[in-house]
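Internal ticket #5521
Category: modeling
Description: The requester needs a full-assembly model to guide mutagenesis choices. All entity lines are attached below as received. Residue total reported by intake: 848.
Assigned to: D.W.
Attached entities:
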Amino acid sequence: MLLKTRSQLHISTVSLIRFYDWCMVRPLSVEEQKANVQSAVSCNDTKREVTVLNSLFKQADKTFTFDKVFGPKSQQRAIYDHAVAPIVDDVLEGYNCTVFAFGQTGTGKTYTMEGEMMQQVGELPASAGVMPRAVRHIFDILKAQKAVYSMKVTFLELYNEEITDLLASEDQSRFPEDRHKRPTISLMEDGKGGSVIRGLEEIVVYSPGEIYSLLQHGSTRRRTADTALNMQSSRSHSVFSIYIHVKVTTTGNQELMKYGRLNLVDLAGSESIARSGAKEVRAREAGELNKSLLTLGRVITALVEDSVHVPYRANISLKEKDFIISNLLHAKNVILERAKVLCGTVETASGDIAHLQNKLGRQSKTEVENKGLLFNFRSQIDQSLGLLHNTVVGSIREQHQFMESMTGQMNSYFSAKSESANHLKRRIAKAKDMYTSGVQCMNELVNTLRQRSITDSEQMKLNISSQAIAVDNFIAVMVSETEQVLTEVLRSTSELKELLAFSAEQQELGLQKSLTSAQAMSKTSIDFFNDISTHASRLMKLMEQSQRGCSSRLAEFEKGFEEVAIREEQAAVDKIAGILAGLTARKRTMVSEYVGQLNDKYSEEQEHLALEMSSLQQVSDNGKKEAASCAEKLKNQFLDDMSSHANTKDKMGDVLQQCLKGSHHSVSYWSHMQSCLEHLNKSSVVEANDFIQEGRNENESIIQEIQLRSSHNDAGFHAITSDILTASENSHLLDHETRKRMETLSTSFSNHLGLLTEKHNQGTESIRTFTSNFMEKDYSVNSPVRHRPQELLAGAYSFESIEELKASVPDLVAKFKSKNKLDEVDKGKSYSDQTTRAPRSPLTPVNH
Ligand SMILES: Nc1ncnc2c1ncn2[C@@H]1O[C@H](COP(=O)(O)OP(=O)(O)OP(=O)(O)O)[C@@H](O)[C@H]1O
């Protein structure tokens, strides 16, 4: 497995690139040892040589030299310390560095780069790879330097020419099958000859632990597969990048930013498809991997050999992103050759490697030289900057001294020179006095204005606050009254509710009672009708019995009668006539006896029936009585319920009436409140508008007055300056040198005056701005739809204050004029020598 690094430093348009080749040979695994696999490679770490033992195949051994060789016994820590640690130092110096791990599948690339994944705290395990060690190293250095820095990381995977962000947030798709699809991102031209990876998530990190978690997370998302040569073979290239921005302070106390970037690239392994046992998808995948690695190798070789043509595109050779990503798309034969060399299958690669090493050595040397040159260049720049600084400071000091000496000379010149100088001095003093008094007067005016504005704003604040308090009180009263009304309404509503509940209860009770009564009544009626039915059935039975008795007796009578008739007939036949009378008498007796018996029996049954009928009558009467009493009870109950309902209804009516009154009262109260507020707002708006208008007028006149004074002052200074110029021009007695100095002094004085004028101009402008702000912003009244005006800004003028100011302005102007005898200036009595010049606009520079 080869570990290759590339460093790149960007200094304006210059890019320095250097390459190192390290060769790592992993130990035989336990399985390989068990299978008695023979080692085909021997390493000489000291000589930095790896020998492919072709003698095993009865051919000459081949020896290859690298920048560094790590044999099978090498520890992860040693590999990091020798190969990667210096590169991390370069990164923190502002270089862009890349560490590639490439080689045949199963040779230990991922193990070297990642190793056993990192612990959050404490020592790293012995098997920790380059990535966790580099992270820990970077943080250790930054901590030791107490550096101010920022850091972010990216982690991408390149699989079958498709880039995937390994740190992208998990997909929250609605459909579970979509969640496994990782978002792909694209490589784009950045328009500056470089390229950008669009959509790659850059994660800002603050601790090694955070990076370890990200690495662990990203690493588990990488595509791996179980092949015949590696149980967990990476099927994609991965690029983990750390971007570091460090703030540094130079000796000249300048703050600079160093931007360094470390790319840690774990390439997929090249493989012999036949040996790895790859089929179908895996075989195609392996083909793509081989192709990309080959192209990468070609690009690296072209860069190492300084080839005119780099098999990607020329600008890419200087750009790392393109180098890593795009070159993979074109990498073909060279990397395969390298892989084959390592496998001992290509014999002719030995010379190339040696040649490459020599080239690399030369390049490293040039690189070191360039770095030295650069360092010298930088120190020269620092020296030049220091020199420049000293020169500038010295020249300023000289100028200052010159000015001081000039002032002294001028003083002596004026004291020694004639009346014209004295006259000039007096004029200057006068102008100075005038200007000072003007300024003083203006200051007074400004102070008075400010004082007034403060007092008036306070007064206004007081008024506003008292108004606000009144409005607040008014609102509070309204609120409390509204609350009372609402409480009343609520109380009435609750009473109403209670009454309704009570009435419902009463109704329910009444209905319950009615139901019970109706049930009792119905039970009594049912009993009554049951009794009647019983008695009726008994009566029917009795009647049936009686009928049956009568029938049987009549049948017996008929039978007996027939028998007797037959006997009588026989007797009659026998006795013929004699007995006929007695027979008839006896027949009559028998019939009457039997009729008597029948009559008795019938009367007896009649009595019995009458008895039954009377008992039926009795039952019926009882039932009637009970029904009547029940009806009476129900009637009374119903009447009670009706009266209670009537009472409830009356009460509810009263309560509703109260509610209605309360609502009417609230409505009228609210409308009253609304009209009050509207009135209040309207009056505030009108007052404020009037106030603004008057304030605006007053301020306009004040500004005009200030401008007038300023123009007087300017005119005065203009006169003085021209006097000085005239005096200096006319001074034949002055020698050339003195005149020159005079001119310089005059120019500096004029410049000074120009500055003063500018300041004055700024002052006037700021007063104007202040006034316009004051008018347009500070005094603007809020929209009438609001209930309370906003507070005016502190320092704003009240209407009264402006009135007072207005009254005081003429006094102040008169005072100013009398103090400076400006009436004379106005009349053109003094400064007659200035009238020859055209009047200058008040705020234009004096000398031009
Ligand atoms: N220096 C080492 N010491 C002990 N075991 C190692 C070492 N290097 C690699 N291995 C073991 O060898 C096996 C293959 O290593 P690794 O997966 O890192 O190879 P790879 O080059 O990344 O393969 P691929 O290109 O197929 O992904 C792993 O089981 C790993 O643990």
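Resolution: model delivered.
Comment from assignee: The pocket of adenosine-5'-triphosphate is lined by residues 26-27, 29, 105-111, 230, 232-234, 268-269 (CB under 6 Å).
Ticket closed.
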